[in-house]
User: What shape does this take?
Amino acid sequence: MLVLECPCCGITAEETEFHAGGEAHLKRFGPESSNEDFENYMFMRQNPKGVHLERWRHNNGCGKWFHAARCTMTLEVFGTYSAQTYEPPKEICDIISAKRPSWSWEAFS
Amino acid sequence: MKRYSAFAIAREATRYHSGWERAWRAPEPKAKYDAIIIGAGGHGLATAYYLGKNFGITNVAIIEKGWLGGGNTGRNTTIIRSNYLQDPSAALYEKSRSLYETMSQDLNYNVMFSPRGVIMLAQTHHEVRGYQRTAHANALQGVPTEWISPQRVKELCPIINLEGPRYPVLGGLWQARGGTARHDAVAWGYARACSDMGMDVIQQCEVTNIRREGGKVVGVDTTKGAIDCDKLGIVVAGHSGDLANMSGFRLPLESVALQALVSEPIKPAMDVVIMANTVHGYLSQSDKGEMVIGGGTDGYNNYTQRGSFHHVEETVRALNETFPMLSRLKMLRQWGGIVDVTGDRSPILSKTPVDGVFINCGWGTGGFKAIPGSGWAMAELMAKGHSPLTDEFGMERFIEGRFIDESVAAGVAH
Assistant: This one.
């Protein structure tokens, strides 16, 4: 059972209050993009064993989207942060790096 | 290999069962094989078996990180059916189901295939229309299925409550030749047959790197040393993404945990398999008498082989409405498996950007039923470079937009 803190309304709750929305920081491609770019955006996923940055929605609360950093091997939640960003904020990266030294932020495509 | 038979049991009974052999050898890896299969689950072992049986390629190693059949092969709810909507799926799953019928004889290993029949319940009007459509599609595909009335559902499964308060039973899609099999025995039977053909099943051996030269695979590095090969089959379900990373390509997959649980054993109460996809629960009774219950997946990426408790609660609550007699049962065990889910909920059986590397993954929440068909098709793909059964399942379908969309159509529980 995950416990997440919604950075939008500040409420800490367990996962039944939230809805997972898949990998975060996907780069969106529009009508003029190549097939490869669109395939990457639509289907290709990092699916890592380890640190995963992902989207969540506070379904049974404020209803807003946010991002979370979580380990898929241990289910440890490193932290949550606003969705209004193209990459994870430095505080989150520092927390993850302290616990997973080999990890580094890397945009997917 | 000594064959198993009634005579063998009688023979061993006279000498304190001292003459049984090990079912498969436990060899050290050789320096080179014609083909290596990564993953000794059902799909990997079946691939190796049909490489040997259908194509005479027996210089094969099957490498397994843990123990054979210890992943999703030993964690599923053992349901076998082939009532899919799309033609490529129906062809593959029906091939698989038909191979299950003779598997015990083919392998000389009792896999306890029980064609007891599978009902997929329709509990909303959308499902009624969907399953009627599937029944028509199945008729065209040559897969015998039938749309049945609620009364017929009740005849087949007397413990069901048709007037569920939330989701009354409006009918069902009935596949009389579907059923269940003993999941461990499928892996063990294939492993024994592979070993008998001279293949090496190497357990406790993790692949750490996939070696390539000039865009072609030349071998793998493992915790038991380097092994060379000409062809490599990656058949590792939830961990496919990790091995694809080692090979330098990516996959359209996400890994999530799928849960199942079993109750305490009770006397025989139902002799069919029931799937209720609206409420995310499926139910059958094992030969030991346990009610085997499959649940839903967690919505988030997960490699821990355990799922969230509230999904168990949802599943059990829904099944209690449809099967009120279950309400007093104690649950004995609960577990999770890591399933790899693709964008269109159909598997990938494909060549890869690396020459000589083939991948079989993406079976998502329904891989057990496909084991023999998947192995049959994957073996043909690896031996000949293409197979009529896998042509539609290539990974290029995602870039071409040629999906085999089973996500809702065929009622794949997900």
